[in-house]
Amino acid sequence: MSNALKNVKVAPNSATLAEARHRVFDFFKTACRSLPTVMHIYNLDDVTSISELRSTVASEIRKNSHVTNPKVIDMLLFKAFEELKNVVDMAKQRHHIIGQYVVGKQGLVQDRATKDQGISPFLKNFYNSNYS
């Protein structure tokens, strides 16, 4: 199943920031090329699309755009390749993938407004004061 990642190796160190940046782009290309396999393995067609997963990968990469140390970028790339390999090798289950990459961290909070419509003002204040 992981034919797409068998020949991918993480280089030992980036000498410059430009080289590290180039390696980040290479990782993004590799991740995007493996997304159809991930969609097939985890049967995600009913939940998301490849373009949504691609934008999730891009946003995860953008979270660390402020990092300028090549050694730190190399460490983050190593962790990213490890995560990608775990996903492609089915080391995670479907609900892990959906929770981490489809729904996301704030996905469950967005449904909160529709559930609060039938609740009394007292309970709304109680929930807000105790769980916020």
Automatic annotation (TrEMBL):
<keyword id="KW-0999">Mitochondrion inner membrane</keyword>
<dbReference type="InterPro" id="IPR016488">
    <property type="entry name" value="NADH_Ub_cplx-1_asu_su-6"/>
</dbReference>
<keyword id="KW-0472">Membrane</keyword>
<protein>
    <recommendedName>
        <fullName>NADH dehydrogenase [ubiquinone] 1 alpha subcomplex subunit 6</fullName>
    </recommendedName>
</protein>
<dbReference type="InterPro" id="IPR045299">
    <property type="entry name" value="Complex1_LYR_NDUFA6_LYRM6"/>
</dbReference>
<comment type="similarity">
    <text>Belongs to the complex I LYR family.</text>
</comment>
<keyword id="KW-0679">Respiratory chain</keyword>
<keyword id="KW-0249">Electron transport</keyword>
<keyword id="KW-0813">Transport</keyword>
<keyword id="KW-0496">Mitochondrion</keyword>
